[in-house]
Amino acid sequence: MGVFDIMGPVMIGPSSSHTAGAAKIGRLARLLFRDKIEQARIYFHGSFAETYHGHGTDKAVVGGLLGYKVDDTRIKKSLEIARQNGIDVKFYSIKMKDVHPNTVLIKLKKGDKELEVTGSSIGGGNIVVHNIDGYEVNIRGNYPTLWVLHRDKPGEVGIITSILGCYKLNIAFMRVFRKKRGTIGSSIIELDQDVDEDIIDHLQGMKDILKVRYIPPL
């Protein structure tokens, strides 16, 4: 056990679960969206829904959507800053099944472009994002991470890992999900090194790869 496990992250308070974790989920959603956010609809479940205003979870998520890290003092004024930037933000309480009590669903929009991200703050500033646009994932934001959507066919995962190997990237952890055999695979690849844009372009240019997103450590 390290000092971080005992003390938690350096952050804007009051709670590592309700603020630091929430800010990380918001920032991860921003990194996935990769565009100016015009509209954000934020749905809180469980403990988040009960206490989000008092604990500043609303400010934390929006701060993350603005790109702020957990120790950025601008999080305290994130709602005002979002309005100044023309972002239409609304909050809701919902009930979800089989999820952690500190769970948030974020829906982002710009014109016809939309993104949905569901993530949970599991304590000590740690998070798990477990769904992106209906695809199962498992992203914790601790490592440089690639999310790759690809056709579920023999050899496709091997092609992806071979490309990464050609660029001297070492895979720390990898998880592959799919809704049904032979449809779409959702691969989460956590790496020991950062990923350059030319590597992402190489992967994105492959025939059976549908989408590639890179998430640096949060």
Automatic annotation (TrEMBL):
Pfam families: SDH_beta
Catalytic activity: L-serine = pyruvate + NH4(+)
Gene Ontology biological-process entries: gluconeogenesis
Cofactor(s) required, per the database record: [4Fe-4S] cluster
InterPro entries, A to Z: ACT-like_dom_sf (IPR045865), ACT_dom (IPR002912), ASB_dom_sf (IPR029009), Fe-S_L-Ser (IPR051318), Fe-S_L-Ser_bsu (IPR004643), Ser_deHydtase_bsu (IPR005131)
Keywords assigned by UniProt, alphabetized: 4Fe-4S, Gluconeogenesis, Iron, Iron-sulfur, Lyase, Metal-binding
Biological or metabolic pathway of the protein: Carbohydrate biosynthesis; gluconeogenesis
Domain called ACT: residue spans: 145-217
Keyword Metal-binding: yes
GO molecular function, one term: L-serine ammonia-lyase activity
Family: Belongs to the iron-sulfur dependent L-serine dehydratase family.
Protein name: L-serine deaminase
Organism: Halothermothrix orenii (strain H 168 / OCM 544 / DSM 9562)
